[in-house]
Write a structure and sequence with these properties.
Keywords: Membrane, Transmembrane, Transmembrane helix. It is built from 8 helices and 5 strands. It is an alpha+beta fold and about 260 residues long. The chain has 2 domains: about 80 residues, no CATH class; about 110 residues, no CATH class. Strands 1, 2, 3, 4 and 5 form a 5-stranded mixed sheet that branches. A hairpin with a 2-residue loop joins strand 3 and strand 4. The protein is elongated. The relative contact order is 0.08.
């Protein structure tokens, strides 16, 4: 009899499992391991240092300065007890250095998106609780790429523009008229982003919004959002076509 050359599959390449280990479930993809918190902080530090070379010296100064202050205060209260000063000062120094890195990293991140399309929307995405923000722009000019983003909060409705003041004015006025028809008593605030006169930089948009005076309650904010959502985003109908008078071409449907 002829012998076949096919052999049974070998299990040599399969990882060995212990007697009490669980068998992996078939069809489930392996979970991607997330980077550790320390690695994330190191990556943030490297990104910030590329745009802010002083970050290293500022963090080091904050770390050593807080330790020195802690030592001085401890020695004044309890002379000779410098160990307690170090035990208190080192955590405070680390915390101070991390706070400086967080602030500088935020500035570096905003400087990277400044002037790019969608920068205003990216800034609004960092809003804290109490604000309702639409990821899609409320109004867009396809030709000039000018956009208007909308956020709803206790101060009312905030329209954040992206584009030159003179050019984006028509978009803002149209959106303001549309909202005023259904919400005549709600305050509408306009914030223009940019570096020109009267404009607000991307890094300061959320700070300016949070400083606005609150006028609405939490329930009223939700009601305003639902009222605006009921409008929808309807596309304009081409001129010369009346949808109420349009009739199907029956001859074309029969193939004539």
């Amino acid at each position: 009899m002829a012998k076949t050359t096919d052999t049974a599959p070998s299990n040599a390449d399969e990882p060995k499992r212990s007697l009490f280990s669980r068998k992996p479930k078939a069809g489930k993809p392996n979970k991607v391991k997330k980077p550790s918190r320390i690695k994330q902080m190191v990556d943030i530090f490297k990104m910030t240092r590329r745009h802010d070379p002083l970050i290293t010296w500022l963090m080091l100064g904050a770390f050593l300065g807080l330790i020195l202050v802690s030592l001085v205060v401890t020695l004044l209260v309890s002379p000779g007890n410098w160990i307690t000063g170090l035990l208190v000062g080192i955590p405070l120094g680390v915390l101070g250095a991390l706070l400086i890195m967080s602030r500088r990293a935020e500035r570096a991140a905003y400087s990277q998106i400044e002037g790019k399309p969608g920068a205003a929307g990216a800034a609004l995405s960092s809003l804290k609780r109490g604000w309702i923000f639409d990821e899609q722009p409320a109004a867009v000019n396809p030709r000039t790429q000018d956009v208007v983003f909308r956020a709803i909060g206790k101060p009312g409705i905030v329209l954040v523009t992206e584009g030159p003041s003179a050019r984006v004015k028509s978009l803002v006025d149209a959106e303001r008229r549309r909202l005023s028809r259904i919400l005549p008593n709600v305050t509408i605030t306009v914030i223009e982003t940019g570096k020109g006169e009267g404009q607000t930089s991307i890094a300061k948009v959320t700070k300016k919004m949070n400083k606005l005076k609150g006028e609405l309650t939490k329930v009223e904010v939700s009601t305003v959002n639902k009222r605006i959502a009921s409008l929808g985003n309807k596309l304009p109908i081409p001129k010369g076509i009346d949808p109420n008078k349009a009739r199907p071409d029956r001859k074309a449907a029969r193939g004539r």
